[in-house]
Amino acid sequence: MMDxxxxxxxxxxxxxxxxxxxxxxxxxxxxxKHKFRESPDWARQALLRMIERGILETDTTGGxxxxxxxxxxxxxxxxxxxxxxxxxxxxxxxKKFENVIRRDIDDEAYYDSL
Length: 114
Description:
It is a single chain. This protein has 114 residues and is mainly alpha-helical. The protein has one domain: Winged helix-like DNA-binding domain superfamily/Winged helix DNA-binding domain (Arc Repressor Mutant, subunit A). Strand 2 and strand 3 form a beta hairpin. The longest helix has 11 residues.
């Protein structure tokens, strides 16, 4: 379970779209200016904990980003239809429905479980 500091870092990095962000940027922007003024190194321990738990990864320049969630492609047998009648109608239509939006795991729940 993430504590308050980790959650602030998580929400900030989630908005960065998977790009590596320098630690100084995280400490300035994730917790707000008042938190940064009180303690400029407030995020250091939280970042280290998140790396140990596998939530974050770093690059060679010291940037941080959320570790991508491993996505597993669903096998054809694991697909479930709302009803057999709808499945049959879709098959008869002749269209391909391979790129259907799937309900993936909630990213916050995934990172909380680490």
